[in-house]
Amino acid sequence: MRQSSRPCGRLAPSPTGHIHLGNAWAFLLAWLAARSQDGQIVMRLEDIDPQRSRPEYATHLLEDLRWLGLDWDYGPDVGGPAGPYTQSDRGEVYASALKQLEEAGMTYPCFCTRKELRQLAAAPHIDDAGAPYPGTCRNLNEEQIQDMIRNGRRASIRLRCPQSPISFDDMLLGPQTFSLADCGGDFALCRSDGVVAYQLAVAVDDALMGVNQVVRGRDILPSTPRQIALLQLLSYGAPSYAHVPLLLDEEGERLAKRHNSLSLRYLREQGVDPNRIVGLLGMLAGLEVSSRAINPGELLPAFAWSRLPRQDVRIENSHLRALLQ
Question: What's the number of domains the chain is made of?
Fold first, then answer.
């Protein structure tokens, strides 16, 4: 799918649980960013983790987002020119990209076990991907590699990260520059069990699906230089990026799928008007002065990057009580 000057955003949920208000917040802002510029939306199911992804969650999240008032032009339920739009069906695409990187000498096998990697947990974590990788297997020679294989060790595949810094202009946060060492060093492209890693799948999918505008939570910011590096190595252009603040609970904790009372599925089952949810999120985003019931399309004239908060936003218990009244 060719890149276009017309924005093409994406909604990329993982079907590992029910969508909560924090997910809805990020998806609504991504939808508004594209639709406010007459752009298109891709829906992509990021279900590459076979241990955590569930078909019923995939079904529910599509239903719940449509109930909220969001729509998309391409996706697993509507088709499109760059499908399939479910990552578990895109194994050949990722294998081709991985082969291209291997042939360019940009990968190496890593025999570190999960236990060995967990021992790095005392080091500061970069993000949800875990602790920085110290390059233990980076310079193994062929004899050492074959010894590992003979001893029954299974290898993941890591990227031999380029040294040059990665710079981009975040639409919300402004100019950003990172070295890949800042982002954890050489990162995994494929697990030892053959499951493709998040960074490779997302970068390749954004490129092939024509996504040129990525709006997501600021917790994903350290992933962006990694994905830009992969796009450059694979000779693709990078999208524009905006990393929005997170929605927190009243105690200041990031919303997660354990917050079942804040899931769209729960609120829907309680008979909550979806327009009241949109109105609340619009108010928290600075696009509305009150949390009046409003559909996503009515927020489009108010959307502007300059109006969005730069700091994480708390959703108070009083907000939830008001929704449930």
Answer: 2
